[in-house]
């Protein structure tokens, strides 16, 4: 029932009744499928797509490229766990290519983030180097446009 | 002072302006209007198609093509019609590339009709057939289709309108504005009536890729004895979300296509070259995108039909295109009044059903070529409007 996941991915506030109508399925089946996805850990949560820049929240994010040295009994997963356990870390990915972990970190200010990197991230034994890139503007996040509102540009034609 | 009224063609001046246009004009003067009036996909043309258009420009393909269209494109159209609908055409003599399906409709009617011929037009329908037929001095004979028949053309209704002067039947299914679809058995009934006559068929299949419920579109040209009397008109606008590219085609017996091509070459020369190159790509590689768009429309269709029915605006289940045609008779208002009041009270623009023929009175056309969020908001406003009646 991939269509259900696609619908929830775009708008998780659709009610089970609405989803059932759109998929032409009984509500009970949709409810059961969602429960099952949750139980299996396929659906991990439901979040709103918020443009914090439009609020008064002080919010700075940085993308940090981290090179690590995996050691015996202390592979990438363990190092990643150490890093993603910090509340400041919003995303943490293992990467192919020139560095190993891509981490998104948020804080109230540039200084906050810089202190996090120097005091918490860099001192970790396995961390070999970090490169911090601050986000200046978000245009699009998880498929949602942030920089502008999607506009219907169709004009009226008679047909 | 020029007296334009006495100078201009009487025939043209007699054509009534479209009721839809008038409505759009009112709506465009108002703020915060949410429209359910647009008759084109909200999807962008798939990237591969746009890219093919860009590439053709980069390569400098900026000349006219052959009058009938790029040979490559005509071949792809012939292959596509065979693959999808089992109708076979010789791409060299039986396929013509046009500026949208609309031009193909115009050509077919002009190529076939003599003054005084009768043209049968099932209504409600797309607004272009009747004015074009009138320009050829044809007598337009509407055939009313009814909600209780699923807005399909029935053999009985057809038979009642046939006279010795009947030249042409327009068959507009899947239908704008009703969403009605003719299944094979319904078409067979119509074919039975036509087989013993000399009546030609203009089968407007522009919405052929938008049929729902797992049922593929059937072309009347694929039924025995019908190919030789039918011109199939279609295009890229709806299936591939290519409305602005203005590209369509007609396919039919060579003697008809020959005359249509003649009018086309004098009036148009050829369809836009860039669009033709893009369309080759559409037919070669975009089947998956078409399926995805159809599935998306299908979800919206369920959503809007359910929503309107719950509000008491009963809809029959539309099986094709991207329109629903709910009855507004429970409100006691005429189609025009309903639309005017809804627009002024809640700023929702829908199109009065009678714009598509008198038999559309008591209905409105709602397009669901919009996002679910847009449809939700519109339904909310319609609900608020109905409460005030």
List the helices and strands and how they pair.
The complex is a heterodimer of chains A (159) and B (389).
Chain A: H1 2-10, H2 16-23, H3 27-39, E1 60-68, H4 76-84, E2 89-94, E3 101-107, H5 110-121, E4 127-134, E5 140-141, E6 144-145
Antiparallel strand pairs in A: 1-3, 1-4, 2-3, 5-6
Chain B: H1 4-7, H2 10-14, H3 19-28, E1 34-35, H4 47-58, H5 71-85, E2 95-98, H6 100-112, E3 118-123, H7 129-135, E4 139-144, H8 155-161, E5 166-171, H9 184-194, E6 200-204, E7 230-235, E8 248-251, H10 254-267, H11 273-285, H12 287-310, E9 323-324, H13 335-346, E10 348-349, E11 351-352, E12 364-367, H14 372-387
Parallel strand pairs in B: 1-10, 3-4, 3-5, 5-6, 6-7
Antiparallel strand pairs in B: 2-8, 7-8, 9-12, 11-12
In total, the number of domains of chain B comes to 2
Largest sheet of chain A: 4 strands, antiparallel
Instruction: Count helical runs of chain A.
Output: 5
CATH superfamily of the largest domain in chain A: Lrp/AsnC effector binding domain/regulation of amino acid metabolism (RAM) domain
What name goes with the CATH superfamily of the largest domain in chain B? Type I PLP-dependent aspartate aminotransferase-like (Major domain)
Specify the structural class of chain B: alpha/beta
- Report helical residue fraction of chain B: 40-55%
The CATH top-level class label of the largest domain in chain B:
Alpha Beta
Within the CATH hierarchy, at the fold level, what is the topology of the largest domain in chain A? Alpha-Beta Plaits
Query: Might you state the CATH topology name of the largest domain in chain B?
Result: Aspartate Aminotransferase, domain 2
Extract low-pLDDT stretches of chain B: none
Placed side by side, the strands forming the largest sheet of chain A appear as 2-3-1-4
Helix fraction of chain A by DSSP (H/I, runs of at least 4) = 25-40%
